[in-house]
What does this fold into?
Amino acid sequence: MAWVASAIVGAAVVSTVGTSLAAGKAADAQTNAANQAAATSLGMYNQTRSDLSRYRDVGQLASNKMVDRLDELTAPITMTEDQVQKTPGYQFNLTQGLKATQNSAAARGLGSSGAALKGAATFATGLADSTYQNQFNNAVTNQTNAYNKLKSLVDLGENAAAQTGTAGTSAANTAAGAQIGAGNAQAAAANATGGAISSAANSIGGYAAYKGLYGGNNNSGGTFNISNVTDA
It folds into this structure.
């Protein structure tokens, strides 16, 4: 019966080795696939980060410029009479308007009367008011435009930074999932190898027990003896 024991032991060993090799190859294949997936994900993230870098840089420059000009761009707009009088064209319009008012008064025979002077003063005041309002509106428009232009570039950089962060999170999740899968594959391979070894041990042990109970020429009362495994 030695050949039976040898066959059982041989079969168990072959089964264990085969299972271990198969599990190892499967684990290695999954690990390689996981590493490739992680590398691909990282490569795509690096490409995305590179593509968006110029927009982040523009946003950073605009943000720095906005901070430098923040007081100017958010300050209340005030104008003095002197500034109004220095408005391009103001003096010309004032001179021409006063001439027209004086000529109108002279044509009506008012000359330099109080009514004529009052008309001139009214014209000058109206011109100053309208010029002030126009200049104020222009200043508000210019200030708003400057702020909005910088703000649009800041928003461009902010969006690029947000997209970079989203791409990084996605890449990290992909890499983490791949590595977890590889770890699970290695664990499964270890479990499969352990199971195969345990199964082989049970097979050999079972046959040894059988010989000890039923075929023991060297045993009395059926007492188990491992030497019976190889008895003829």
Q: What stands out?
A: The longest helix spans residues 114-214. Confidence is low (pLDDT under 50) at residues 1-5, 216-232.
